[in-house]
Amino acid sequence: MASIHDVAKEAGVSVATVSKVINNYPDVSDKTRKKVSQTIKKLKYHPNVAARGLVKGRSWTVGVFVTTSFTNPFVTELLEGIKTALQNSGYDLLHLSTRFDDPTYSFVEHCLSRNVDGVVGFGIDRNDPHLEELLDSDIPTMLVDSDIQGRRAAYITTENKTGIMQAVAHLAELGHSRISFVSGELDNAVGQLRHEGYVEGMKSHKLSVNPAYVKISDYSMEGGAQAMTELLELEERPTAVVCTSDMMAIGAINVIHRSGLSVPEDISVIGFDNTYYSEIFSPALTTVNQNIRSIGSHAIETLIAMIENADFTPSVVTEPSNLVVRCTTAQLRDKSAL
Amino acid sequence: MASIHDVAKEAGVSVATVSKVINNYPDVSDKTRKKVSQTIKKLKYHPNVAARGLVKGRSWTVGVFVTTSFTNPFVTELLEGIKTALQNSGYDLLHLSTRFDDPTYSFVEHCLSRNVDGVVGFGIDRNDPHLEELLDSDIPTMLVDSDIQGRRAAYITTENKTGIMQAVAHLAELGHSRISFVSGELDNAVGQLRHEGYVEGMKSHKLSVNPAYVKISDYSMEGGAQAMTELLELEERPTAVVCTSDMMAIGAINVIHRSGLSVPEDISVIGFDNTYYSEIFSPALTTVNQNIRSIGSHAIETLIAMIENADFTPSVVTEPSNLVVRCTTAQLRDKSAL
DNA sequence: CTGAAAGCGCTTACAG
DNA sequence: CTGAAAGCGCTTACAG
């Protein structure tokens, strides 16, 4: 690779001048600028980003730490949004590899030694010590779905509460009263808000919350299957289930089908996320849509704004959610049929 | 961030000595080594990778260029394999963002200015000018599914031909003779080999290839749906379809169902890839399994070997494939029923 | 408008 | 065993 020196020599100017034309400084004569530009083209010169970063203290890089599987559809959609926003931004996405062989491994130190300009995080437990360290580090950070803010950190999330309320309302309008809530952990903002949405939704339709109908599991298919298995063992099983992820809903539906019951005839099921799977799955899922790609894009846009303006303190952004009715919910059947 | 100078001053040694202990050089006395190590811990010092890279001419970074959507299940599984192999390797994955606003954008120049140590590529058209440039650049490159080699480039793929042959054999054994082949483009190695597998598979079962049964489309659900629509319009429609991706198979099945026919009763369908979708989809897909994650991991391992040994010329690796029989294939029905 | 020089945080011969 | 110095490829005051 040609270096700035090669260009300078070839063009008969100093490296300082070359640097100025690269960076579009105004104090260069048109003639020199033209000469240098031509030489750059001729030599196929491209600035070494690491060298530039070394002096500027930057890397034009955004760090991300994918702790879950890439096959997780939420992650996948989020990355797609991130990718889109990164396009033309001048930043590249650095996917930081964990080092499990090192017990002292620190995500933040990794970011620091890589000199990333910002970090986008998701799926991080709010008690994760890495998170606290990150917040302390003053590296600009955008969190997805974690209700945590810092001097240089903000977050973005979905209207979780109203999303679930819409789901409950839909079921109530279909005549259901024995509505179950199958959720991921409740010890974080997302879990809490969705649970609140469930409780309030039930209340506003004068429906009572049966504690046996609230099942906490994890967001996977297996989690949904496990919860559903337990629900089916109940004396009086629910006629409708609100799940907090599409994968959980799919897991639940599989269990229902395997038990000889059908969806939505016997039990209505609602998912959450509106990932690609929810449409492909058959029956197509009724689900709460969240604009995951927008969340990803917005997170990056905000992060870049934070990076480029040290005084910028972003406010929390909440993307709207809405219910998408497809084929897994139906009118409650005649009670005698139960 | 503390720099090497801070550590040197604090420990009362020269930066050269600090560098030596960081890099585990032997010519440092135990005493100094201990002293320096302690200071490093105390100051939470971590070497700046960009600075080190500048002098070493490396970046400990592998570049990747995701041109398709992250939601593509093949890509997703591949990245998961890549991620796994990168763990503990000391390399991070740099996801290069394209710059569509710049018509002169060059992937290779992007790699060069980022100084990536190697590139893993997939889904690249063999005629893509970027690819040629990449091969010329001498940046170590591992391609997935592109049968292209270079001084510093190799590829890894699946046993495509035998995979399809197994699929055809399975259908033939079920009594099918009107077997269709729905594929992505044939102008690349993968497409060609799969097509060969189809033709040979048919021949070895004494079945004739009906040109009207060969449909070329793209690997998406829409592609499969489009091809299937055309097949259903045929006077004598096929009784079985081999698709070259799971998504195509899903698209095809949806069309079959919508037309009032059923899978596998009326038409058997086989997919390719054995992605997560194929299990979740209902009916669960009979499909040709390829070890996508292994391919991803293997690609990285080979790439790192190439990076760290300039003389290493890897041979082509072909991962085995095998048919996974699930619910979308069945015995041919009585001919009179057609 | 142009360029010499210092410096970003490292590594590496080389001298001692 | 230790360290001074040059250099990796850039940018940025600063002087002219």
UniProtKB/TrEMBL annotation, chains A, B:
- What SUPFAM superfamilies does the annotation carry? lambda repressor-like DNA-binding domains (SSF47413), Periplasmic binding protein-like I (SSF53822)
* Organism the protein comes from: Saccharibacillus kuerlensis
Q: Where in the numbering of this chain does the HTH lacI-type domain appear?
A: 2-56
Which UniProt keyword terms apply here? DNA-binding, Transcription, Transcription regulation
Domain of life of the native organism: Bacteria
- What protein does this entry describe? LacI family transcriptional regulator
Pfam families cross-referenced by the UniProt entry:
LacI (PF00356), Peripla_BP_3 (PF13377)
Task: Indicate whether Transcription appears among the record's keywords.
Answer: yes
- Keyword Ribonucleoprotein set for record: no
Q: Which PROSITE patterns match?
A: HTH_LACI_1 (PS00356), HTH_LACI_2 (PS50932)
Annotated SMART domains: HTH_LACI (SM00354)
What CDD domains is this protein classified in?
A: HTH_LacI, PBP1_LacI_sugar_binding-like
InterPro entries cross-referenced by the UniProt entry: HTH_LacI (IPR000843), LacI/GalR-like_sensor (IPR046335), Lambda_DNA-bd_dom_sf (IPR010982), Peripla_BP_I (IPR028082)
